[in-house]
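As a warm-up, study this chain.
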Amino acid sequence: MKHLLAFTFLLLLSVSLSAKEQSEQQPSGTMLAAIWLTSTEGDKIETYQKDGKWFGKLVASNSKDAPLGTTVLRNFVLIDGQWRGQVYSIKRDQEADGTIEPSLDTLVIDIPIAFFSITLNWHNEKSQRNKTE
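Now compare it with the structure written out below.
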């Protein structure tokens, strides 16, 4: 009986540690749900989940050429520990493949183009607000 209890305890402990390690390696999709400040034109992007995929739409901008409601992050899914989908450029009217590395404070968006890549850093609006208070 003692051996069964010890075995059960060790099994639960290893499962718990494995789940913790897994969650640290692959951030939860829920951290994507936020409003993000871009570095251009005072744009704000609201990210949300729909049909198991992540999207981001423009909810505020100082540019009159940027229509609010435009979906700029499209169909992002977690593949092999990396968020992959498409990024839409309103200015260029083009869509490109991209990856997102989320954290609580920042979305790092990498868009590979030919022989180089563009990296965007968007900051969580709540985190920015807390820093100024």
